[in-house]
Amino acid sequence: MKRAILVACLLCFLVAACTRQYGSVSAGMTAYKARDYSAAAADFRLAAQHGDAPAQAMLGIMYVQGQGVPQDYAKAVKWFRLAARQGHAIAQASLGLLYYHGLGVPRDYAKALKWFRLAAQQGNAAGQYNLGFMYGKGQGVPLDYAKALKWLRLAAQQGDAGAQGMLGILYVNSPGVPQNYAKALKWDRLAAQQGLGMAQYDLGVMYQQGLGVSVNYTKALKWLRLAADQGLGVAQAKLAGLYVTGQDVPQDYVEAYKWCKLSKASFKPGTNSYKMAGTAIAELSTMMTTAQIAQGQQEASAWWAAHHKGGS
User: Fold this and answer.
1) What digits encode the pLDDT tens for the residues 213-227?
2) pTM
3) In terms of CATH, what superfamily is 1-122?
4) Coil, strand or helix at 168
């Protein structure tokens, strides 16, 4: 689960909720929107100390993000818990996420599940997605695809990209869900259009292989490149393979080398994917001139610098 995506979603809901409050909460939201995080934190703290649940939840988010305060997951847990106990759905989902990842508290799937369920039952999309995710993985609960689909659909229908993407995966390749390429395509397309890298990759593969849709190499390349440009190693490796063989694209060893190098950099050292990428680079190098290799390395470095702050 992507913490950054969830935090962004939670902030959208919190902005709407907090602007309806009064006093220091309203002032806090004004400061927050102006990116005056220190002032916002002070205003939210004042309201939070008086028991205002949206302010407590917002303060929790700021401790997670390190906005206006030093990043402190333990303090985020404190404020989320206070709001969650008042029934604040966003705080419940946030607290569940911290328990799930073991941030500020020991990792505890049972407690994560508890808070996700409470949020989900209130219609919170993040809670529904994470609850469905845990049922689909059998984390903290017995594996249950029926319940996973139930909660994921509810979140997906609210536009949650993570839930849409996971539905796409389940409908393509899951032992507990009947294969349905049409449904997979529907949910993958919705998630991909929201920028979810894995969904973009899956959609590209479906267009390339004609799964649930007519083969369309132009669309396949479009979605694979979008996923690769997000740094998704599997998509970068896929692109490298296409350029090596000249399948669906003009054969281009320099472009293949670039994506192969980037793919290797995205994988954890020592993993099979990392080793396979290294082997592919070595093999590809034997087919290239010294100048081509240098150009491929230069293009990979340029891509990396453009997609990472400070080029690191």
Assistant:
1) 999 988 999 999 999
2) 0.83
3) Tetratricopeptide repeat domain (1.25.40.10)
4) helix
